[in-house]
Amino acid sequence: MICASRLVHSFRGVASYLETPKSNREDRVRVAWIEARNVVSDESLSIAAREMALVAASNSRVRRPCLHLSISWAPEDDPSKDQMTEVSDRVLASLKMSEHQAMLVAHGDEHYAHVHAFANRVHPITRIPRYGTFYYRQIEETLRKAEREMNFQETPGHYYQLPGQSAPDRRDSLSKRTHKATQSKGEIPFQVLVRDSAEGDFDAAQSWLDLHTRLEKRGLKLEPHGPGLVVTDGHEYAKCSSVARDASLRKLEARFNAPWSSAEKCSLDQSIQRLGQVVSKDLTPSGKRALVKEFIRLDAHIGGLKTKLTRAVYNSLRTLANDEQQRGDLGR
Predict the structure, then answer these.
(1) Are residues 288 and 254 both part of a single domain?
(2) What torsion, rounded to 10 degrees, do the Cα atoms 51, 54, 59, 63 define?
(3) Rounded to whole angstroms, how far apart are CA atoms 151 and 242?
(4) Secondary structure letter of residue 36 according to DSSP
(5) pLDDT, averaged across the chain
(6) Does one domain contain both 11 and 111?
């Protein structure tokens, strides 16, 4: 079993989502059954949501009073209603919310069994809220024990494992959108394609420039995204951490002993390094012209090029560029 959880502001919004049929599945039963916990209005989701909202309004400090849970079984499992309600009640109990208002809603429009629960974090009597974030460990511990006890397919979690289980590789975790596309269209996720072709490049690269060069040969590019990095082909994106085990931004910066550097910056830095190593007197006339053109291009695009080169090298290249420009050789 897996469980998704989130905190939201509107009980009414969750209730509306749970009872509204999906446009592409109107021929299937959306709501299979409903059960209430500590709610007077136990037959209508909208009325129950209104009742919860009134209780939550008594504590204005709680900005997101609705905890929405979605518990899903493997397609091979066939849980009964009693088993689904028992698992839901155990999860709520693990979160210390057995006395809180909650609605259980089972859907019948997917190829796998799943039940939703939305609960009021504000206690109906004491008005004290249940604080916390997403309670991952408590939920996973409850699901792992229930799977083994009820003979459901076991799904080792990231935060809790039973004896004999090991934590799954996070690179195998797909986003909800990617997972649905894989299930409905039979598509191979982009992150899997990139991992199959470029995982070795991430492992073997010795610098940012080396990594950019390797990925460019495969038609891929690195881009910053939020606090991390993604790899893209210009159309689709995948987190670098989902492609290779040690490919997060933090780990790559530590391995390369250098902060993030884009492909463009790496290329400019390489060009500057070449300029500083070239001895102009050893160049042919065409070589000098190429050197001067490169110097003029970099000097126009990079602020403070003089500080990146030694003063002697910069002045020597500036003099050479002036001489070539006066002779008019740069157009040849």
Answers:
(1) no
(2) 80
(3) 31
(4) E
(5) 82
(6) yes
